[in-house]
Amino acid sequence: MASTNQSPEYQSAEKHYLLAQSDEERIRFLEEMIKHMPQHKSAEKLRANLRTRYKKFKNKLEIQKKSGKSSREIIKKSDMQVNIIGLTNSGKSLIIKALTNATPEIADYQFTTKEPLIGTLNYEGTQIQIIDQPAVESEYFDQGIANTTDLLILVITELEQINQIKGFLENAKGKQIIVFNKIDLLTTNEKRKLEATMKSKIKTPFILFSAKTKENIDQLKELIFQQFNIVRIYTKEPHKQPSQNAMILKPPKNTVIDAAKKLSNDLLKNLKETRITGPSSKFPNQKV
């Protein structure tokens, strides 16, 4: 975070760096930060840190270029995106494995996750993209994903970890929920006391969970889904069954016109009549 003796140019570059969504962008803004950073002796540690980060992203980019991969491939955003955040060994990888089709590397040593891992949670006709991030305190943590995601899951195993994790999320705009993981290690009485403490001290939505035993897995899925302000649309062709996969619309772009645009521009041009059925209609097959 920029201090008061850093120039406006440095602070602007740092802001863009934290919001960057590709390694190319991070490298460019790190170059600007290094160029405009203070030159006094007390800034030597910061200078070394910036150069280390710069070197890491340059090396990573070279490897990606040789393999033909893009640094943007892993963070392509879906309509509903969740980012799992936590300290090392908090059980994040087990959580994404419990929720999705992802197959993360799971080990007892620290910083097992070195790249964001993507999985899909299929729930209530929707497909929710879930990303398991490297630990927030590791050099592999991707600030850009955290800053632009729709929902952040803060995984903790101790209450004191909440503020630690939030310290890395100053520029994050998404909603947040807290998952207290590893409750399989607690007694029933300890769980009851923990829940009471969290209810009295924490305003953020939370859930007690065990990724190992999957205790409260259905409740966690529902809690995640509830955080999205969406309209689900199931299209239906004449004489056919409705689609099983929902189209997702977010306010304010949640009208019939918006739905037609998302399906096809040609459909919008030739649209003559639409009918809706469900909670948004006054009666079945309402003409709109």
Provide an overview of this structure.
The protein has ten helices and ten strands. Helices cover 38% and strands 16% of the residues. The termini are far apart. The model is unreliable at 70-74 (pLDDT under 50). The chain is an alpha/beta fold and 288 residues long. It folds into three domains: 8-67, no CATH class; 74-226, P-loop containing nucleotide triphosphate hydrolases (Rossmann fold, 3-Layer(aba) Sandwich), CATH 3.40.50; 231-287, no CATH class. It has helices at residues 8-19, 23-36, 44-67, 92-99, 143-148, 161-166, 188-201, 217-226, 256-263, 265-270, and strands at residues 81-86, 117-123, 126-132, 151-156, 175-180, 206-208, 231-233, 247-249, 275-276, 286-287. The longest helix is centred in the first third of the chain and has 24 residues, at 44-67. The strands form three sheets. A six-stranded mixed sheet has the order 2-3-1-4-5-6, sandwiched between helices. The protein has a two-stranded antiparallel sheet with strand order 7-8.
Distance separating the two termini: 51 Å
Oligomerization state of this entry? single chain
Q: How helical, in percent, are the residues?
A: 25-40%
CATH superfamily of the largest domain: P-loop containing nucleotide triphosphate hydrolases
Please write the string of helix (H) and strand (E) elements. HHHEHEEHEHEHEHEEHHEE
- Uncertain runs are 70-74
What percentage of amino acids are in beta strands? Answer: 15-25%
SSE map:
Blueprint: H1 8-19, H2 23-36, H3 44-67, E1 81-86, H4 92-99, E2 117-123, E3 126-132, H5 143-148, E4 151-156, H6 161-166, E5 175-180, H7 188-201, E6 206-208, H8 217-226, E7 231-233, E8 247-249, H9 256-263, H10 265-270, E9 275-276, E10 286-287
Parallel strand pairs: 1-3, 1-4, 4-5, 5-6
Antiparallel strand pairs: 2-3, 7-8, 9-10
